[in-house]
Design a protein that fits this description.
By secondary structure, the protein is an alpha+beta fold. Helices cover about 25% and strands about 40% of the residues. The protein is built from three helices and six strands; from the N terminus they run ααββαββββ. Strand 3 and strand 4 form a beta hairpin. The longest helix is centred in the first third of the chain and has 15 residues. The protein is globular and about 40 Å long. The N terminus is likely disordered.
Length: about 140
Amino acid sequence: MVHTLSQPDDTPAPPATPEAPTAVAPAESQVRRYYELVDAGDVPALVALFTPDARYHRPGYPPMVGHAALEHFYRDQRVIRAGTHTLATVVTTGDEVAVHGLFRGVLHDGGEVELRFADFFRMTPQGRIAARDTFFHVPAV
């Protein structure tokens, strides 16, 4: 039996099909939902995204632990009246989600604010937020 090698086919390759959008990881989806709820001012729904013993560290505030502390912060302590978070980068690795973005809004005293921020979330296997650390891009040292 004789085998012959065929010459390369000059027929053009079929056009590449566009890649399907990458599915968003459940942890990332929950974090994105968190920002939507903050911007909408829906305190009960955003607090429900956290575990009952969740810890939140934010510059200028003592660590907040648990639903009651989170609700108190969002209802009574947060200096922001309203605003919008624009997420520039979201990176998910295992149970951690890192976010970099820009916040634009209005303070309770009427002042306007625009600042870059970074947030780091630790998620539970059930998709709830167990911890959050916030950092702001402002002159400090």
